[in-house]
Amino acid sequence: MLTLRSFLAILALAFGMMVSACGTTSPTVGARDAGVTTQSQLATAYALGSSDRLRVTVFGHPTLSGEFEVDGTGSISMPLIGTVRAIGLSTIELENAIAESLSDGYVLNPRVSAEVINYRPYYILGEVGRPGEYPYTSGLTVQNAVAAAGGFTYRANKRAVYIKSIEADQEIAYDLTPSTVVKPGDTIRIGERIF
Predict the structure, then answer these.
(1) pTM for this one?
(2) Distance of alpha carbon 122 from alpha carbon 107, whole angstroms
(3) What is the mean pLDDT of residues 31-49?
(4) CB 147 within 8 Å of CB 173
């Protein structure tokens, strides 16, 4: 049987958990800089694209495993099952697609693992020392990309960056913060500041 003191302690604990769960914040969207509306980035699952190099492992079947590159058509070519569409899929979705194809008369209960070993390059344009194509590394931020491209020019707008992802039709302006990320295949443009 609960005493009044135990009941109040449980009630206070439950109330404290409820209050702490409500204390989350959302990212800032719509900040203004030099007349440009910018957005904060949200994390999304990586979608495979052309020139990504993958390591696919079919457990227990080394002849079906290996390294494969996503070709210009967005597919990889594997032993037994031929071409498998990869573009736009996450690695988990690709694993499921390969396992489904293999289970169709080739391998009993296939277990498949896929990982990206080389990402497609990114591009940086505008007010940087050396615009061009650069190899992508995991965890890359816009500030790292600018440093690799020789830093900002004296005219660079250091508060906003324009990024066109491979899936998008047009570039989007983002706040340029230390955590502004670059994804493989992105085209980054550093604009000119307005005096």
Answers:
(1) 0.64
(2) 37
(3) 57
(4) no
Q: Among 97, 118, 139, where does a domain finish?
A: 118
- Report the alpha-carbon distance of residue 173 to residue 29 in Å, rounded: 11
Residue 168: per-residue pLDDT: 84
The answer to the question of residue 11 being in a domain is no
Residue 7: both structure tokens together: 């009941």
Number of Cβ within 10 Å of residue 52's Cβ equals 24
Whether residue 98 contacts residue 161, with contact meaning beta carbons closer than 8 Å, is answered with no
Distance set, CA 79 to CA 65, 68, 84, 178, 192 (Å): 8, 11, 10, 43, 50
Q: How many domains does the chain have?
A: 2
* Contacts of 47 by beta carbon, 8 Å cutoff, 6+ apart: 87, 88, 89, 90, 166, 167
* Percent of the chain predicted with pLDDT > 70: 77
The range of the structural domain enclosing residue 72 comes to: 53-118
